[in-house]
Write a structure and sequence with these properties.
elongated, six-stranded mixed beta sheet, single chain
């Protein structure tokens, strides 16, 4: 279906930088002639509707129950009706634009727009999100606030937008909705695979760091190890010859500092070009570089994110680097304490701790919390054996998960390119849309708003999407 798409036979230049050429028979018009800004009163039955960065505009309860700043008074809230085009004025640059799937109410920071009879709101939601992806909305910003705009109705209304014939708008929406649904399903399937493999991986790690190995480092079978109660809930029973120690007896802690807290002499002695580790990124924790370093470790130490959506995530770091204030280092006090082994231990400990946190709370971790933790402590030689065995046992799992993540990335890139080419008239989908099956026959559990949210890229959609009341 997609491979057979062809460009339109004749095009014309629009003079609009983000749009380029469009089909010759398309018209152009100002958005203000296609939409009317609404200011409806709020009804008693209205629940809060949220405009997310993935383009979904739905009742808040459909997507998540934490991460919002709740308003004590809903001053200026407005009514939203299903089918309205909703634009988050402060977050439109990041794609917070879409068509409401529910009646409700929303913050005054939203521009709630009712389409004219000839305008397909879904088509213009796709179009505006392409304006955001191409950074055109960002380029319109007049303020100095980084990565933010004030894209209100006046700014939207002044934009020149494409105006395909109404049947063609409907065909484009039908085609893109169908393609988007299929791609999301592929992504969800990959994510389910990753989740299952991650659960298997964590089970292997938990077994190794709480029970040891079924064989020695030489590969010879060992007799059944006698167990004893650890007295620690998350550990359960441990091998009888293992100790249980407080984390603070094995490690010391360090936290990042701002450059303003350091002297020029200090920074001068530590000049260069070094990585900065932060809890803001999901993959490797690296957040840019800076021309001085704060820490220098020949051997690995454990890097822990302390606040935010990724609090209690861990990884190993070494070399020269600086550290953000939202994370900490767990540094061995002795060469006999393996940071690699205890990174596995902390990973399992923090998974247990996070499971007990209330849904309305943001996870956080302080040094005083670290001081309270008890961890298993095998003999140093056994720590090394466990690390080597774990590396071998989870290597294939990591490879499969990495490949699935790369495939997800390629699917997202393909979806982005396809939407861009179709809404701007670079590909003709009229015939393909006419041959599509009935969409109602395809819908299922994966089409619910909460399921669609889970394939979003880059950030935890549950905490990064829209903190709407704080923006209001």
């Amino acid at each position: 279906m997609i491979a057979d798409l062809k460009p339109y036979p004749a095009t014309k230049d629009t003079g609009v930088p983000w749009l380029g050429e469009v089909p010759e028979h398309w018209e152009m018009d100002r958005a203000k002639w296609l939409f009317r800004k609404m200011d409806r009163p709020v009804r008693d039955v209205d629940e809060v509707v949220t405009c997310f960065r993935d383009g979904r505009v739905t009742l808040r309860k459909n997507r998540r129950v934490r991460g919002f700043t709740e308003s004590l008074k809903e001053i200026g809230y407005q009514g939203i009706r299903r089918g309205d085009l909703v634009i988050h004025a402060m977050d439109a640059f990041a794609g917070a634009i879409g068509v409401a799937d529910s009646d409700g109410k929303g913050t005054p920071v939203y521009a709630v727009c009712e389409p004219a009879p000839s305008a397909n709101a879904q088509y213009y939601a796709y179009t505006l999100r392409e304006m955001a992806r191409s950074q055109w909305i960002q380029a319109l910003a007049k303020g100095i606030r980084e990565r933010s705009t004030d894209f209100r109705f006046d700014g939207f209304g002044s934009q020149t937008v494409p105006l395909p014939p109404p049947p063609e708008e409907a065909a484009i929406v039908r085609f893109l909705d169908h393609a988007d649904r299929r791609i999301r399903r592929y992504i969800r399937a990959k994510q389910k695979l990753i989740k299952l493999l991650e659960e298997q991986k964590q089970a292997i790690i938990h077994r190794a760091v709480t029970r040891g190995l079924p064989s020695t480092g030489s590969g010879q079978a060992t007799p059944n190890v006698r167990l004893k109660p650890s007295g620690v809930e998350w550990l359960g029973d441990l091998p009888e010859h293992w100790e249980v120690k407080k984390l603070r007896l094995l490690f010391r802690y360090a936290k990042g500092r701002r450059a303003a807290e350091l002297t020029n002499e200090y920074i001068g002695r530590h000049a260069g070009f070094f990585p900065v580790y932060s809890g803001q990124t999901e993959s490797n924790g690296l957040r840019g570089q800076i021309d001085w370093y704060e820490f220098d470790f020949a051997d690995p130490v454990v890097f822990v994110t302390t606040v935010g959506a990724r609090a209690m995530s861990t990884r190993l770091v070494s070399g020269r680097f600086s550290l953000s204030q939202n994370c900490a280092l767990v540094i061995p006090r002795s060469v006999e304490t393996s940071a690699v082994f205890f990174e596995y231990v902390l990973r399992r400990l923090f998974e247990y701790e996070k499971a007990s946190i209330s849904l309305i709370m943001q996870p956080s971790l302080r040094f005083s919390d670290l001081n309270k933790f008890y961890v298993p402590c095998p003999p140093p030689s056994e720590q090394a054996d466990i690390v080597e065995a774990l590396k071998a046992n989870i290597l294939d799992l990591d490879r499969v998960m990495d490949r699935a993540q790369r495939e997800i990335g390629l699917l997202r890139e393909y979806r982005t390119r396809l939407i861009a080419d179709v809404v701007t008239g670079k590909l003709d989908v009229r015939e393909a849309a006419a041959n599509l099956p009935d969409e109602l026959d395809e819908k299922g559990p994966l089409d619910r708003p909460e399921a669609l949210a889970e394939d979003e890229e880059g950030t935890d959609n549950a905490l990064d999407a829209v903190d709407e009341e704080a923006e209001a």
